[in-house]
Amino acid sequence: MSTPGPRLHDAIERIQAFTAGRQPIGARHDEADDSVGTIGTDDAIGFDPISLLSAFDRHGAEVVAIGQVAGILHGSSELTGDLDLLWSGSESDAPRIAAALADAEALLFDHDMVPITSTPDGLTLAKVMFETATASGDLCTPRLPWGALDVGAFMSRAEQCVTDGVTIRYITKHDLIAMRRAVGRPKDIRRADELEQL
User: What element of type H or E holds 86?
Assistant: First the structure.
């Protein structure tokens, strides 16, 4: 049975093969089809989250993968084109998050795609979107309206693996299933069902 790190590397290779030669269609990860997912968007082209995750690790910036990258680490076979992350949103953690984003030369945007600064002051929103050379996605905090989900607890009990010397934290399978069920899009239900069978 494969372990989380090799699963992620295998998925990255499959994403690169799947998107090889694909021409951009002008669709970002936040415009993904609710059934197909972000693998069908331009952000899937060249997608490799390890470089950005390495920047967070180097700067001691605690982030937790919460989307399909977490699903892949748990063994999901479905591919993705974005990296969804959760961080505390606290003022004390913001400098390390900002330093990692600057290291990765990330561009940050608000919900309306208005650029914001990659500084602690620019990280006061409940969610920001980011773009780097190899990964785009959402950087979320517990301040988002998560309904009944206690995402702060998700962070505290996250699992971790080490691949290529990079420590990657990701939510537990149980918590990921709960998040999928709460969101409830066709891809989320399908992926929750898959996770429950693993």
Answer: strand 83-86
The dotted CATH code for 4-193 is 3.30.460
Residue owning tokens 């537990």: 172
The backbone torsions φ and ψ at residue 90, rounded to the nearest 5 degrees and listed phi first, read -80, 150
| Residue that the structure tokens 């609710």 belong to | 34
The amino acid present at 22, given as its one-letter code, is R
Structure tokens at 21: 């030669």
pLDDT in tens, 155-185: 999 999 999 999 999 999 999 999 999 999 9
Burial class (CB in 10 A: 0-12, 13-18, 19+), 15: buried
Which tens digit of pLDDT belongs to each residue from 147-159? 999 999 999 999 9
